[in-house]
Design a protein that fits this description.
Blueprint lengths: L1 H19 L11 E11 L6 H8 L6 E4 L2 H12 L3 E11 L5 E10 L2 E8 L3 H11 L9 H17 L6 E8 L6 E9 L5 E8 L6 H7 L21 H17 L6 E11 L2 E9 L5 E8 L6 H8 L9 H9 L9 H6 L7 E10 L2 E9 L5 E8 L6 H5 L12 H13 L5 H5 L4 E6 L4 E7 L7 E9 L2 E13 L19 E9 L4 E10 L8 E13 L11 E14 L7 E15 L10 E15 L10 E10 L18 H4 L6 E12 L5 E12 L12 E4 L12 E4 L22 E15 L4 E14 L11 E12 L3 E13 L6 E10 L4
Parallel strand pairs: 1-4, 5-7, 8-10, 11-13, 14-16, 28-29
Antiparallel strand pairs: 1-2, 3-4, 6-7, 9-10, 12-13, 15-16, 17-18, 18-19, 19-20, 20-21, 21-22, 22-23, 23-24, 24-25, 25-26, 26-27, 27-30, 30-31, 31-32, 32-33, 33-34
Helix pairs in contact: 1-3, 6-7
Length: 837
């Protein structure tokens, strides 16, 4: 009908103009053929004449019939471009021979839009809508543009629950620009529509609460719905998907014929709807016989051991599909993973219902195994800063290797946890791709990476303890020592080789000074995942709390450590064995503060071996996996080389602790479980024990544990390990000895933490958390009681900024008394820098 109206308009325009020509007579009852001698075009400004002539098809020398379809077709084609509001093709003149015609195409261009505007919405919404409609200034205005833009705006608000949003479009002539208009979308969002109640009918086999739980994105406002962590906003698209989830819930219970007979949505208020869903659940079915066809690699018994379906089991097609082709949560092994981990990338399996007798179903599993595939090209994109070899060496997929699904997934995990690339985009759709080639049984793996800044600058000052503390630190987590001599690489420092270089200086003047430096090469010699690390530090603390005080009383600590770690292949390649040699010197001069001697030096030479396993999916916000480590740190047993009758009680402390001896055992474990969406549960356990070789000598004055508070060292230079426990003051859960010094030689700590992300972007990661913790420390292993703990609970926030690292703030409430306190700890705030609990 639209085109018919255009043709009629064209014919009327032609007829009017033709009759206006005194020397041209057109008889519509007797069409006549003419040769096109020339075509004139008038009325266009933005579109070229040549383009109009090309679109019209009225070429010079072409024979056309007037009146006829040639003229009407030309008019239609030009009008379809949507550049013009009026199109007319007329006869301008005839050649003297009367058989050749000069045509004129008269156009009226649509007005151009000089400005698009949006009213009735917030600034953030305006930005989102502009990104969706993608309207530009200077384009022609058309009904099509108005309609599609209006639909996009309505869909945008419908996704947010404003399903009754109205959009009214107004046009105002621009008085400054010729043939231009200003277009305004007047938006009235209306109330946000939420679901008051969802009612199921005919669901005799399954409770309504279970069906409501199966709807992933649709929820109502009933009391128990709060605990489902789902919004009650009505979103039509999500609702349609969730109706399929309801049917899947019946399929899981064996009701293969279940269907939604009718669903009704009706308003009970301006911003509330009720939904009634009528279900025809049908009868319940059971498996009878399950046969495998086409399998040669694995026997039917091996396949059945994974499928775990026997005769008489409920006909649960949902679970059957998960065990055949995989579960996104990877909670159970599946048949597809068996084959793809053995190179059979082109494997396919199709369950076919062979017979239905009463309530029993026979199923035949038809398998196409294909041939084993190998990796061909491994393509890495997006590594604009990090050198390709750094990303490539982390991969478990190599050209010529047999395809294994587990290796491909592990490669994605390694890229996500490197810290150089955005983990969210690595794991998301579009972050990777597999390009199989059945002709030669190969597959190309493509990794599309997005670099993220991970070097950090710390420049801060603060007031604490009646003094000013300044901190300056840099941490380059993608450093390149190889390119130091390359002048072009200093932007501002050489980067790209995945090495870590860190330097940090903190002081408040003469009272407290710390200087630390470290370097880590994660792949020594570049061929195997053998890490090399070296670090050194110096700290000095005096009694000159104010600048005018004497600095003759001080304690200095110098330390150096060198370590070597390697990835193991057994029990699996997530295990890392790390070895480290440590040297520390404690120099005391007239230092009579919380220490066992005033003058002298103590030396601490130790060896540490640790075994760790980290299978988390990323560093900053892990959703799944675990992180466990067990370490032993030992010094030589110097007391064994002394006389057996050595009287340690009468020995001077400076001599007694000239060489520190101890053995230190630590275990740390954390498990991350993805609950719903990005909601993550973290459970953790920590244990530490500082032992001695000689009971007469006793515990070392160094290397103990300070439990309580934010877990940061503050001004302490004492050789201890700081363990955070929120809800209590710093070190408040650490016992004191008879000299008033901290003596936490054994500790245990339990943590349960619920996390939910606010922002997951390369520029920043923000997540909120709620926690409960319990822990305690003891002076002696004989006093150790793992469940005699101090308790706390609270909430917190973590902000990861690439420039400064992890920042955090927690509020905790301690329910028990700290050491030496007469009342419970109560409310405590904690501020954190560069540390995660």
């Amino acid at each position: 009908m639209k085109y018919l109206r255009v043709l009629l308009l064209s014919m009327l325009l032609c007829q009017g103009v033709l009759y206006a020509q005194t020397d041209v007579v057109v008889d519509y009852n007797n069409p006549k053929k003419y040769v096109v001698g020339d075509v004139k075009v008038e009325g266009m400004k933005y579109v070229s004449e040549q383009r109009i002539l090309s679109i019209s098809g009225l070429d010079k020398g072409k024979e056309i019939q007037i009146p006829g379809s040639d003229i009407s077709d030309a008019t239609r084609r030009i009008y379809q471009q949507r550049f013009f509001s009026q199109v007319a093709v007329t006869i301008d003149s005839l050649y003297p021979t009367k058989d050749t015609v000069v045509l004129k195409i008269a156009l009226k261009e649509r007005p151009r839009v000089s400005r698009w505007d949006y009213k009735g919405i917030k600034k953030g919404e305006r930005t989102d809508i502009q990104e969706r409609v993608k309207l530009k200034k200077g384009v022609e205005l058309s009904d099509y543009t108005i309609k599609t833009s209006t639909d996009i705006i309505k869909r945008y608000y419908a996704e947010k629950g404003f399903i009754r949003a109205e959009v009214n479009v107004t046009q105002v002539t621009d008085t400054v620009i010729n043939n231009a208009v200003r277009v305004t979308f007047n938006i009235k969002k209306g109330p946000k529509v939420k679901i008051k109640k969802i009612t199921f009918h005919g669901n005799d086999a399954i409770k309504g609460s279970k069906l409501l739980k199966s709807m992933k994105k649709t929820n109502d406002k009933q009391f128990m719905s709060f605990f489902r962590f789902k919004s009650a906003k009505f979103k039509k698209k999500e609702y349609e998907n969730d109706k399929n989830s309801v049917i899947s819930a019946f399929n899981e219970e064996g009701y293969r014929d279940a269907r939604i007979a009718k669903d009704t949505i009706y308003y009970v208020a301006d911003n509330r709807v009720n939904i009634d869903i009528d279900i025809d659940q049908g009868q319940k079915y059971y498996f009878r016989d399950v046969r495998w066809v086409g399998n040669s690699i694995y026997t039917a018994d091996q396949l059945n051991s994974v499928l775990k379906i026997g005769k008489g089991d409920v006909y649960d097609v949902v679970t059957m599909e998960k065990r055949l082709n995989g579960d996104p949560k990877q909670m159970h092994p599946d048949v597809r993973k068996m084959y793809t981990d053995n190179g059979y990338l082109f494997f396919r399996i199709t369950p076919v219902e062979m017979a239905i007798a009463g309530d029993s179903v026979d199923v035949e599993m038809r398998i196409y195994e294909g041939k084993q595939a190998t990796f061909n090209n491994i393509i890495i994109n997006g590594n604009n800063l990090t050198h390709e070899k750094i990303a490539r060496r982390a991969l478990f997929t190599r050209p010529g290797y047999l395809y294994r699904q587990t290796d491909f997934e592990r490669s994605l995990r390694e890229l996500s946890s490197m810290g150089h690339f955005d983990p969210e985009k690595v794991m998301a759709e579009g972050g990777y791709n597999l390009l199989p080639n059945m002709a030669n049984n190969t597959v190309d793996a493509v990794y599309n990476l997005t670099e993220k800044p991970n070097s950090q600058l710390e420049l801060s000052g603060g007031w604490g303890g009646d003094s000013f503390v300044g901190t300056l630190g840099v941490s380059f987590n993608n450093f390149s020592i190889r390119r130091i001599g390359d002048k072009t690489a200093w932007k501002p420092v050489p980067l790209g080789d995945g090495q870590q270089l860190s330097i940090r200086f903190q002081t408040n003047g003469t009272y407290y000074t710390v200087l630390q430096a470290s370097f880590v090469e994660p792949w020594l010699f570049g061929k195997k995942p053998t890490s090399f690390s070296v670090q050194t530090w110096f700290s000095r603390q005096t009694n000159s709390y104010y600048y005018y005080q004497d600095t003759d009383e001080y304690m200095e600590v110098f330390g150096f450590a060198i370590g070597l770690g390697t990835r193991l292949k057994f029990p699996d390649n997530y295990f890392v064995l790390y070895n480290q040699l440590n040297w520390q010197t404690y120099n005391l001069h007239n230092w009579a503060y919380t220490f066992m001697f005033d003058n002298g030096k103590s030396r601490n030479f130790s060896y540490t071996v640790s075994l760790s396993r980290n299978s988390t999916d990323q560093q900053v916000y892990p959703r799944q996996g675990s992180d466990f480590s067990f370490s032993i740190q030992v010094t030589p047993p110097y007391s064994l080389f002394r006389a057996k009758d050595t009287d340690y009680e009468s020995m001077e402390a400076a001599e007694k602790y000239k060489w520190i001896e101890y053995h230190k055992w630590k275990f740390n474990g954390a498990l991350y479980t993805k609950l719903i969406g990005d909601l993550v549960l973290k459970t953790a356990y920590n244990f530490g024990y500082l032992g001695y070789y000689n009971r007469n000598l006793g515990y070392s004055p160094f290397e103990g544990f300070l439990l309580g508070g934010d877990g940061q060292s503050g001004y302490q230079t004492y050789g201890s390990e700081y363990i955070g426990m929120r809800g209590y003051e710093n070190y408040a859960l650490t016992p004191l000895n008879e000299n008033g010094a901290y003596s936490g030689n054994v500790y245990t700590k339990y943590t349960v933490e619920l996390r939910y992300p606010v922002i997951l972007q390369p520029q920043s990661t923000i997540f909120a958390l709620a926690f409960v913790e319990g822990g305690n420390s003891w002076a002696d292993i004989n006093e150790f009681k793992p469940f005699q703990i101090k308790r706390s609970a609270g909430v917190g926030l973590r902000v990861m900024l690439p420039v400064v690292g992890m920042l955090g703030m927690d509020w905790g409430y301690g329910f028990d008394k700290a050491y030496g306190k007469s009342s419970i700890s109560g409310s405590q705030f904690h501020f954190l820098i560069g540390q995660q609990f």
